[in-house]
Amino acid sequence: MAAIDLSAAPFNLDEEDTAWVHATRDSLSPRDKLAQLFVLLSREAPEEALDAIRAFKPGGITRIFTPELADEIALMRHINSAGPVPMTVSADLEGSRMSLPFGTEVPNPLGLAAIDDVEVTSTISTLMAEEAHAVGLNWSFTPVIDINKAFQSAIVGTRSYGDDVERIERHALAQIAAFQKHGVAATVKHWPGEGYDDRDQHLVTTVNPLSLAEWEKTFGRLYRAAIEAGVMSVMSAHIAFPAFVRELDPEAGAEAYRPATQSVVLNQTLLREKLGFNGLIVSDATPMAGFGDWGPREETIPQCIIAGCDVILFSDDPNADLMYLVKAVADGRLSQERVDEAVTRVLALKAAVGLHKADQPEPALDSAEMIMARSTSKQIASAASAKVPTLVKDVTKLLPLTPAKHKRVLIFSTGAVQPFAPEPLPLSLPDLLAQEGFDVTEYSEDMQVNPRDFDLVLYLLAEETLLTRQRIFLNWRALTGNVFGAMKRYWHDVPTLMVSLGYPYYLHDAPRVPTYVNAYGSNEEMQAAVVECLLGRKPFAGKNPVDPFCGSDQGKY
Questions:
Q1: How far apart are CA 146 and CA 235, in angstroms?
Q2: What is the DSSP-derived secondary structure letter of residue 468?
Q3: CA distance 460 to 413
Q4: Cβ–Cβ under 8 Å, residues 252 and 295
Q5: What's the rounded Cα separation, in Å, for the pair 72 and 63?
Q6: What is the DSSP string of 159-199?
Q7: Which residue from 112, 195, 332, 380 puts its CA 20 to 30 A from 371's CA?
Q8: Distance between the two ends of the chain, CA-based, in angstroms?
């Protein structure tokens, strides 16, 4: 096995910790070594989830938490005895609707980028890490260091810190430092860099189209900075990087489009050798089509480890996937040396966050409840949210709104569209306006709209990053219910305002809307913050973290 310096960054283990890693690895059975290479998605009720964990004994789980804090704490208290080694518990700590269901709702990365205050990002990230650690989370698949260049991308959307490399670097490094200081290993993603392809890896292998020189100035800079800062893991994604592959082999052909999760060249040659990354490489979710596009699962699962990923993320049939690895070891495709190398890094991550220590405190309900109930957390989140809303344009000088001038309000709304929810969630913003004295009417398909009946038309759109949506756009027909409604525009007859509580690029589809606001997230705190700004009680302090005009002057007027 190639020697891994566990005393070096990012693990920084002492002799005792290193001895535990080696002794634990060598004590595992061949089957349990391979199981350590899996992180499984856990979304069942806690008791059922524990049975599944005990049956497979994975290296870790990614937990989709229920709102029942007591049940989740009970699960976490049993998890480390469910296998031969303490387990990592991971999540996508991305804020907004991705906040813990019993935790504090905080702005998402694009919202933090609109504030553009590294101290705020550090404070919010510390809050997130403390709450996560209190419920047993020790690994986050964030920060996202993708770049918002392909504006219709549904996979980057609100998850990154915008389109400016320097700003992304500042905020990502702040989050890495805050997370890892408070016992949560950080992950940068999506290697080797997403944001210039407007497709979604859940549906197709995407492509990083940059030249090597362009990549070095953008993603190369970001990944090198994160590695230098000691980030513990990198998520290798279902993204091809043909320029680098062709640099090594001009006749690469289809190999130039092999996703990173399957590529020795991108994981080993570029990430490990050229960038010097010594930490853990975790694959992106392997049930995604961007992974499955490349071949049958009995080939792609072993190739994922052969290619340099130390962890296989998610599996629809873990036992079948485990047997694919067993078979690959048996026929020589996957060497035992490579397996041991991957297990070593898995165990090193666990040691780096202290999971092996006998005095490591277990999650406790009373302390978790106390941390979740801290009044300071809500104050911090509210203060941050107040700085997020961004006034992109107000060509008719509509704002601020008042019941005296804009009493009768007609609202067209998508509701809060969520990746895993079958139906959109209702927004509270209409009720907040009603409480302020506005007469609010929410549009329904059977309405005949007479512009003279209203003093304001308000479009409320709330689509954050949407998995498998492929591209996000303003779907006028869905918003209005029919083809004739889709063609109606009211802003020449009635003052009109469009507010996005998520995706920031709707001016591409509504360039002539006279007043437009971006708020990047649809959580309750953000809706309340938007109302405060619309009524003029708080200033619009947010700064555009992306180009809301999508590279065109059309939307500016």
A1: 12
A2: T
A3: 5
A4: no
A5: 9
A6: SS--S-HHHHHHHHHHHHHHHHHTT-B-EEEEET--SSS-S
A7: 112
A8: 63
User: Does 188 lie in the same domain as 45?
Assistant: yes
Largest Cα span, the chain: 78
Confidence (pLDDT) at 18:
98
Catalytic residue among 284, 310, 321, 455: 284
Spell out the SS3 assignment of 512-555: CCCEEEECCCCCHHHHHHHHHHHCCCCCCCCCCCCCCCCCCCHH
Is 92 noted as a catalytic residue in this protein? no
Give me the pLDDT at residue 243, please.
98
Q: How many domains does the chain have?
A: 2
Q: Does 392 lie in the same domain as 350?
A: no
| Bridge partner list, 41 | 62
Q: How far apart are CA 510 and CA 7, in angstroms?
A: 55
- Burial (Cβ within 10 Å: 0-12, 13-18, ≥19) of residue 221: middle
What is the number of other CB atoms lying within 10 angstroms of the CB of residue 130? 19
State the pLDDT at residue 359: 85
For position 418, what pLDDT does the model report? 84
pLDDT in tens, 25-53: 999 999 999 999 999 999 999 999 999 99
Select from 155, 157, 159 the least CA-distant residue to 145: 159
Q: How far apart are CA 510 and CA 497, in angstroms?
A: 11
Contacts with 27 (C-beta within 8 Å, 6 or more apart), sequence order = 84
Q: What is the pTM of this model?
A: 0.97
DSSP character at residue 337: H
* Residues 489-543: tens digit of each pLDDT: 999 999 999 999 999 999 999 999 999 999 999 999 999 999 999 999 999 999 9
Q: Where are the beta strands (DSSP E) in 181-307?
A: 187-191, 206-207, 233-236, 239-240, 280-285
Asked if 336 and 403 sit in the same domain, the reply is: no
| DSSP E strands, 448-493 | 456-463
CA separation for the pair 275, 534 (Å, rounded): 47
Measured CA distances, 124 to 112, 173, 196, 299, 532 (Å): 9, 13, 28, 42, 21
399 and 346, same domain (yes or no):
no
